[in-house]
Amino acid sequence: MRYSVAEWQTRVDLAACYRLADMFGFSDIIWNHITAKVPGSETFLINRFGLRHDEITASNLMTLDLEGNVIDPGSASSDIDDVNLTGFIIHSAIHAARPNVNCVLHSHSEYGLAVSALEDGLVPLVQDAMPYFEQVAYHDYEGLSTTLEERQRLAADLGDKNVLILRNHGLLTCGATVGEAFMLMYYLERSCKVQIQVMSSGAKYRVLPDDVCRNAAAQYVLFPHGKYEWPALLRLLDRRAPDYCD
């Protein structure tokens, strides 16, 4: 094989994540990016700029190092061989600073964008939002992420958390596994959607007390994100879009 067994499995999982992100509404034509660390290395996998999420396969993912050098261009055609600079800046910042993070997912979903523009950010209104209580970091908007200097600020703002709201920009999640990062984004996006729906209703809404939120957040330790959902999602993808493994 061209790749080790461990790297190929990571490629398959990451390609699946792109397809599922598209299926669940986290994609944005050719924009946004999801990355995964190549096991046992300082490099990471990313989509080729110009490919839609539904075109990503295990073999056409590119490999970059932390300086932005292309280590493996993947198998996509040569007319879309550019690296998305903003994707490199954002993702390399986190992979360099957080050795325990193996996957980073960034989205510009509509409801995520809406919440990112709110002064209070994510508000604990419903059960889906409980795992994020006191676990969300914020990074102020600086314009398009095109400078190396922003990487330090991104990493510092994220700290040891796995969820980052990029103010006036979008959402970001990361995890030890691809499944964890995906499910953190899934429930984060749903929490944002419900929050905007509730606030848009014009009705008086309830913000739960901190002690209740804190207790609920602790209870979610029993159900790690991705542990149960990821295998089920792969079965769904195997039926609907099995070419992600190509």
Strand order of the largest sheet: 4-3-2-1-5-8-7-6
Which percent bin holds the helix content?
Answer: 25-40%
Name given to the CATH architecture: 3-Layer(aba) Sandwich
CATH superfamily: Class II aldolase/adducin N-terminal domain
| Proportion of residues in extended strands | 5-15%
Q: How can the largest sheet be summarized?
A: 8 strands, mixed
Number of strands: 8
Q: Helix/strand-derived class? A: alpha+beta
Count of domains = 1
* Outline: globular
- The rounded Rg comes to 18 Å
What is the top-level CATH class? Alpha Beta
The residue-averaged pLDDT reads 94
Classify the fold: give the CATH topology. L-fuculose-1-phosphate Aldolase
Q: What is the N-to-C order of secondary-structure elements (H for helix, E for strand)? A: HEEEEHEHEHEEHHH
Report what the structure shows.
The chain has helices at residues 5-23, 85-97, 110-116, 150-158, 178-200, 210-219, 229-240; strands at 33-37, 43-46, 62-65, 70-72, 103-107, 136-139, 163-166, 170-175. It has 246 residues and is α+β, with helices and mostly antiparallel strands. The protein has one domain (5-240): Class II aldolase/adducin N-terminal domain (L-fuculose-1-phosphate Aldolase, 3-Layer(aba) Sandwich), CATH 3.40.225. It has an 8-stranded mixed β-sheet with strand order 4-3-2-1-5-8-7-6, sandwiched between helices. Strand 1 and strand 2 (43-46) form a beta hairpin. The two termini are 13 Å apart.
